[in-house]
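Changelog-adjacent note: as of this version, every example in the card shows the full chain rather than a window. The one below runs 295 residues end to end.
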Amino acid sequence: MDQYAGEAGEREAPSQGDVWGRRVRLSWLLVGTLLACGVIAFTAWRILSFTGGNPNRQAMSVFLCAAEDVHQACEGRGAPTAAEKHMIEQRIRAMPEVTDVRFRNQQESLRDSGLIGAVEGLLGPSAVAESFRVVLADYRDIPEAKRKIRALPGVAQITPDQRPEDARRHRAEGEKKRDEVTIFLCERASAFPNCDGRKATKAHKDAIDTALRTMPEASSVEFVDRDKVWAQWLENTDGDTLGMTSEDVPECFIVRVPDLTQIEAFVAKVEAMKGVAHVVSKQDVLDDWDTRQGG
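Full-length structure tokens:
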């Protein structure tokens, strides 16, 4: 258990923050929403299918419960202790279909899974999960292996795994949309200051749409409605609602700004609009990725 050395022997207690606050934060940090709105289409979650197109498809990431976690399996329990993590690893290693298991701490989990930039910036330390990288002899055993591993206390979620080189490849693909800006709208009980705890109304959305389409910086404007965001959310979480409903996920606009030198000023103008919660430029996400990777 050397890899767990230095960790507290007692289980880390969940934050005492109320459920409302946790829902608000997690409704922004999970990648499902960001993927649906196209912000970081080179991240690991659900981009590479278990059933095709992934050269690493027999591997998966087993995420453990975080100190602050709303996955149904983690409700009220907090992060696993070192002893519990050792038990999880031994149980996985004992499975006949498993060929390799490697523990990943919080930073390794973020790096290896491709959760970077806008996503990592929205994660508080207590919401970052450790994980195990699990490799099977045959990818066709994944459904049964997932069923067994999900039953282990302290396991939050299982996702397709991605190698660092896969993340770099998706980053290169993201470069093709460097001019994209994603505008998230206020949701109910939103914590963003511009929202004042209220959801964007139809009048807000119409006004934002009209304003965006008349701004000379924008070459195209696409609205992504709640149904599409929610469907992507459920796909990314294997149908686990994480205590959310479709009303908890934000709708968004995706705008292309071909002149990259205008993006910063464009973002500043849009952030001031009524009904806008948060604005993310893909250019910032890509630059952040490069900085973190030392590129």
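Structural remarks: The chain has two domains: 2-163, 173-293.
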